[in-house]
């Protein structure tokens, strides 16, 4: 955030100076909503959070930049005010509240509660009146006041001791409206700004002004006649059309002035000096609400910026004991290769570490095939040894390599597979890993977004490792790792950082073991997530062969599609334009072509993908057809471009699987993302043609589960009709549609089948009736009727879904078939939006999570069986519910039987786990 003048001195600099920060809650929330795209700020449960994110970011910036000693936020209440009682059209032309904005104010208020910021409302009055009252009271007690609002009516509060922070770009850039600034911009003093507004009107409030009288004329009259009262008294003397217009609309002017006058004497029951003092945030509450909103960066920033009322409480485990892990880390004096450890003598230093488990921390590039370790630290919790692998002599390499490869050494490593990839670049094999705190932290709190060492140590041990970084500088530690520059009195700063993180891993894992024990997650950790991590590491290292010539051909074809769609769009529009410019698209769609307006945003009517698809469904206009084709082709071209850039020198692509992202347990893929290559479109399948069998192998094989979520639904609900649907041998969705519509299977239409399929999967994913209606393009009442008909035939599915939420509300968590828990404290929240978010999560977590667990178990079982039977075939990828294998010569039949056996037997369900298998020379050909 920036402001147009220099930040004032903080309260600490000003001694006893007190600064009161006041914020117009609704005004700034709406600005935040329109400043950030909804589609980029939505939680995994479907809750829009862009207004919350923008508001929280703005507030943190204000607290950091302005250093207020007192803070308050005022909000409007729904319903009328004394202004609408006088003039029913007041603010009557404002657009309806956008659907995604609904509920976000309540979430903002919960964020404010966690931040320790007081917020106020008052029945029949606006936030502006609350702020004006507090501003006057604060100045009366000698406080400096900053009032943040996007409403120009607030300018009347400006004085030498009250500055309005007025947004001029979203909520990130604010202009400081001082008395001089108001007068320079509007030609009147702040106290007379409402006189000017009464004359010219205020469009946003639906207060019409005097026709033909603009700000300059109004300012001239105010100066000439000494304010609005003088203008009214002299109305008959003002000549010309403007004067006549004034006389004709004098009642409007008087009404405007009554309505735009802010009240400064409301009885709020609040004393600013006493009740609005900012004492700091509630650490636990702040962490809870930010993690529910999935605001990782905002949480980290808040922890850095805000004071905490519970300053002695450093996290869920409380403050570290005086002689606990924190003091041990502060006192840690690592032995560094080249300082305390002579080159060639690393083995002796490593032998000095205790015989028990060791923490291992690696600083370097963790990407498979591209990694490189810059620093390696090993610690027993009290001592540490740090080495730069590039400086190791042969004896050092042998000693370090032997320790890392010893399966009995018991190493604790955060992001173990990333560390393994980095070490592999120097020829080291990592085999002794017994625990990964990143995975343990994820199982304990899967809703969080940070599982790096620093985040975990702060969360579970209450230690801020970053705050210790200055120690190295104070001790003369230099950045970098220059062997020649090392002296006996200086430990390199990055070596000390690496050592402290290695030393923190053992107490961290101990704390996480206790938490996993309480949450019933130990078996899942040791029996599933750790083996999955090891399996994924091997898959990442293998990669998959790619034919770059095929990708180059696809890229050229897609480039042609982009150009053709662009030319056709220009022809349909009648002229050239920038198809990526929302402003130009708005002009063509709504002004030139006269299409129905889409959802209103701050910058005009939206042109996002979903809105354009809906518009095309309504109009069928050729311009929209070509625009959507253009966007689709560009997206596919970008996918192909990304794949080509990711090809490594050996002709293979190596993705990175993320194991700690989705709260349901699903894996994701990055650098490149191989899960976003469409499998159901011809263009997506043509991209898959480029993924080929590697040299020395016979073919690729795909194996995936058929309708796994629905099978889990049938098993968990015990619904006889749904179980019978799987056993009938008929097409599942056609069979279910026949039951729902009470017709023969042969009479089911494609539309009926599609609607029922969407309903079935929607239930598994917690889709609301409104969401179903939007997805199918039907009325909500029709979607409700379909839902009712569905449940009338599958009553136990309905009972199960109801019971899942009720049970989760009693237990505080929901869990999968394999025991993966997701704690949902918001199920009992008084905040409706937070409660509904938690209910959606409670609905979808058991089914989605069970599916994810089953696929993970199947992947590990298949990989272990291949190795156990001495086969040369190997698992390369997991894409959602599909495994992709590379088959060694002569092994295809054996591997197919093995895959069906292991995947089909991953768990026991009341319906069979159907596994489909295909083979081919490319990923596309192997589809089935």
TrEMBL record:
<dbReference type="InterPro" id="IPR008918">
    <property type="entry name" value="HhH2"/>
</dbReference>
<keyword id="KW-0548">Nucleotidyltransferase</keyword>
<feature type="domain" description="5'-3' exonuclease">
    <location>
        <begin position="18"/>
        <end position="279"/>
    </location>
</feature>
<comment type="similarity">
    <text>Belongs to the DNA polymerase type-A family.</text>
</comment>
<dbReference type="InterPro" id="IPR029060">
    <property type="entry name" value="PIN-like_dom_sf"/>
</dbReference>
<keyword id="KW-0235">DNA replication</keyword>
<dbReference type="InterPro" id="IPR036279">
    <property type="entry name" value="5-3_exonuclease_C_sf"/>
</dbReference>
<dbReference type="InterPro" id="IPR018320">
    <property type="entry name" value="DNA_polymerase_1"/>
</dbReference>
<dbReference type="InterPro" id="IPR001098">
    <property type="entry name" value="DNA-dir_DNA_pol_A_palm_dom"/>
</dbReference>
<keyword id="KW-0378">Hydrolase</keyword>
<dbReference type="GO" id="GO:0008409">
    <property type="term" value="F:5'-3' exonuclease activity"/>
</dbReference>
<keyword id="KW-0238">DNA-binding</keyword>
<keyword id="KW-0239">DNA-directed DNA polymerase</keyword>
<keyword id="KW-0808">Transferase</keyword>
<dbReference type="InterPro" id="IPR043502">
    <property type="entry name" value="DNA/RNA_pol_sf"/>
</dbReference>
<keyword id="KW-0227">DNA damage</keyword>
<keyword id="KW-0234">DNA repair</keyword>
<dbReference type="InterPro" id="IPR012337">
    <property type="entry name" value="RNaseH-like_sf"/>
</dbReference>
<dbReference type="InterPro" id="IPR002562">
    <property type="entry name" value="3'-5'_exonuclease_dom"/>
</dbReference>
<protein>
    <recommendedName>
        <fullName>DNA polymerase I</fullName>
        <ecNumber>2.7.7.7</ecNumber>
    </recommendedName>
</protein>
<dbReference type="Pfam" id="PF01367">
    <property type="entry name" value="5_3_exonuc"/>
</dbReference>
<dbReference type="GO" id="GO:0008408">
    <property type="term" value="F:3'-5' exonuclease activity"/>
</dbReference>
<keyword id="KW-0269">Exonuclease</keyword>
<dbReference type="InterPro" id="IPR002421">
    <property type="entry name" value="5-3_exonuclease"/>
</dbReference>
<dbReference type="Pfam" id="PF02739">
    <property type="entry name" value="5_3_exonuc_N"/>
</dbReference>
<dbReference type="InterPro" id="IPR020045">
    <property type="entry name" value="DNA_polI_H3TH"/>
</dbReference>
<comment type="function">
    <text>In addition to polymerase activity, this DNA polymerase exhibits 3'-5' and 5'-3' exonuclease activity.</text>
</comment>
<dbReference type="InterPro" id="IPR036397">
    <property type="entry name" value="RNaseH_sf"/>
</dbReference>
<dbReference type="GO" id="GO:0003887">
    <property type="term" value="F:DNA-directed DNA polymerase activity"/>
</dbReference>
<keyword id="KW-0540">Nuclease</keyword>
<feature type="domain" description="DNA-directed DNA polymerase family A palm">
    <location>
        <begin position="684"/>
        <end position="891"/>
    </location>
</feature>
<dbReference type="GO" id="GO:0003677">
    <property type="term" value="F:DNA binding"/>
</dbReference>
<dbReference type="Pfam" id="PF22619">
    <property type="entry name" value="DNA_polI_exo1"/>
</dbReference>
<feature type="domain" description="3'-5' exonuclease">
    <location>
        <begin position="334"/>
        <end position="517"/>
    </location>
</feature>
<dbReference type="GO" id="GO:0006302">
    <property type="term" value="P:double-strand break repair"/>
</dbReference>
<dbReference type="Pfam" id="PF00476">
    <property type="entry name" value="DNA_pol_A"/>
</dbReference>
<dbReference type="InterPro" id="IPR002298">
    <property type="entry name" value="DNA_polymerase_A"/>
</dbReference>
<dbReference type="InterPro" id="IPR020046">
    <property type="entry name" value="5-3_exonucl_a-hlix_arch_N"/>
</dbReference>
<dbReference type="GO" id="GO:0006261">
    <property type="term" value="P:DNA-templated DNA replication"/>
</dbReference>
<dbReference type="InterPro" id="IPR019760">
    <property type="entry name" value="DNA-dir_DNA_pol_A_CS"/>
</dbReference>
<dbReference type="InterPro" id="IPR054690">
    <property type="entry name" value="DNA_polI_exonuclease"/>
</dbReference>
